[in-house]
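Run: sequence + uridine-5'-diphosphate -> complex structure.
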Amino acid sequence: GTEKIAYKRVMLKISGEALMGDTSFGLHPPTVQRVAREVQSVHDMGVEICMVIGGGNIFRGLQGSAQGMERTTADYMGMLATVMNALAMQSALEELGIHTRVISAITMNEVAEPYIRRRAVRHLEKKRVCIFAAGTGNPYFTTDTAATLRASEMNCEAIFKGTKVDGVYDKDPAKHDDAVRYDNVSYDEVLQKHLGVMDASAIALARDNDLPIIVFSLDEPGGFKGILAGEGTYTIVK
Ligand code: UDP
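>> structure
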């Protein structure tokens, strides 16, 4: 896409794996710092920023339950993993001088604020980055759904889904040379063709709330800011 996008408030969703760098588990601090600088460059434009970070670099509920753990317990462990990632990102952002709040869907007052919608909105108005942790607080959901839910509640104008590739393709571009990237694609087409942007509940929630999803590459330095300045390649789901 090339049209200039002028958003005042956005949700940035990244997976836990995006903080792993080239390692195979957990957090890679230089990568966390790099992502924090990408966030900083958008914050510097005056854009209000919400974030949701997944937990897959540490624990996924489905993995745990496949190994015999009770599903809901495994899902709570996954939610706790997202809190660790959120704290790591908070630390990196504050190192850059950006005021940040971690807001958890599971109450743990010693480490994060509880989720109180009006309070979160106030933080955004004061240009604090709000990192929403612990997913939706419910098992059987994903952090993609949490990002869509919080983006809706916070009246974000779009969800920015940072991935390893610069948009949505008709087939896996890592496996097929002739994969074609969409500039625009509808929610329904994403669902019908199983395009793997986000899970189906998240796509349906975004569709019902008219929230565009911008899929872009987080590996591209300056990519996040570039899109907000009207540059770069990405796919917009709307
Ligand atoms: N999770 C959950 N409810 C939520 C969000 C997350 O139970 O609302 C759990 C679920 O087990 C999931 C894990 O937290 O596997 C980590 O989140 P996710 O898989 O979305 O992380 P990502 O793939 O984005 O790193």
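>> summary
The mean pLDDT is 96. The two ends are 13 Å apart (CA to CA).
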